[in-house]
Design brief:
Layout lengths: L1 E5 L6 H12 L2 E4 H11 L2 H11 L6 H12 L8 E4 L5 H14 L5 E6 L2 H9 L1 E4 L5 E3 L19 E2 L6 H15 L2 H7 L3 E5 L4 H12 L1
Parallel strand pairs: 1-3, 1-4, 2-3, 4-8
Antiparallel strand pairs: 5-6, 5-7
The structure holds adenosine-5'-diphosphate (ADP) and adenosine monophosphate.
The site of adenosine-5'-diphosphate (ADP) has 21 residues, from α1, α6, β6 and α9.
Length: about 210
């Protein structure tokens, strides 16, 4: 099963991808996570991406298309993948269609997580992640069961993203509305677009996704 979760920053794509990965064995491919790993490694790409991400802008299409194409070829994607954060522009969506056709693969579902703009800034500024296993949390909406201890791996170290502040979030939301929202009609015209209520509680969103996936 190959699917795309679409929605603005804070819609819940990462949270739900992690749950679907556990349930279905389909791997989460987060282009944001890949870029943050490149930034940590200090590679040339990482240095370039760092400034772009801190400014809330998008990394050029050709870089992202090559990155995801190479990633999909890895053996751990054989059981399927969940794209989280890609495609983010119409040219990326078109390139994805072409590359999947080349690789003999297809998209099973493209799912829009519908959310209200004003809720998102609270979600993003309260977000944190386990530094060891990457499990995502929120200060109020999704805290660890034992404060300060990761539910998944027991680690006590957490990180917050440099771009999860109100100012950069505003730029990222504007980039979503300008560059990414036009993907929705693209997939609607192709007859593959479905929707879930991203404003519902986390468990309810999971139930809605599972109902679509079957
Ligand atoms: P995205 O990957 O779309 O940017 P995340 O999955 O990281 O979004 O979610 C952003 C923040 O909001 C996280 O801290 C997460 O715990 C929280 N969150 C995710 N889904 C919901 C929800 N349905 N209701 C409330 N908070 C949520
Ligand atoms: P995310 O983790 O999805 O919120 O992405 C964080 C940042 O990484 C974005 O604000 C962009 O700067 C960059 N990024 C991630 N995915 C893409 C993509 N598909 N195309 C362009 N830039 C991306």
């Amino acid at each position: 099963m190959n699917l795309i979760l679409l929605g603005p920053p804070g819609a819940g794509k990462g949270t739900q991808s992690q749950r679907l990965e556990k349930k279905y064995g389909t791997i989460q491919l987060s282009t944001g996570d890949m870029l943050r790993a490149a930034v940590r490694s200090g590679s040339e790409l990482g240095q370039r991406a760092d400034a772009i991400m801190k400014a809330g802008q998008l990394v050029p299409d050709e870089v992202m298309i090559e990155m995801i194409s190479e990633r999909i070829d890895q053996p751990d994607c054989a059981k399927g993948f969940i794209l989280d954060g890609f495609p983010r522009t119409v040219p990326q969506a078109e390139a994805l269609d072409a590359m999947l056709a080349d690789k003999g693969l297809k998209l099973d579902h493209v799912i829009e997580m519908k959310v209200d703009g004003p809720a998102l800034v609270t979600r993003v500024t309260g977000r944190f992640t386990c530094a060891k296993c990457g499990t995502g949390y929120h200060d109020s909406f999704n805290p660890p069961k034992v404060a300060g201890v990761c539910d998944n791996c027991g680690s006590t170290e957490f990180t917050r993203r440099a771009d999860d502040n109100a100012e950069t979030f505003g730029k990222r939301l504007a980039a979503y509305e300008r560059d990414t929202a036009p993907i929705l009609p693209y997939y609607r015209e192709h007859g593959v677009l479905k929707q879930v209520d991203g404003m519902a509680e986390i468990d309810e969103v999971t139930r809605q996704l599972e109902a679509i996936i079957g």
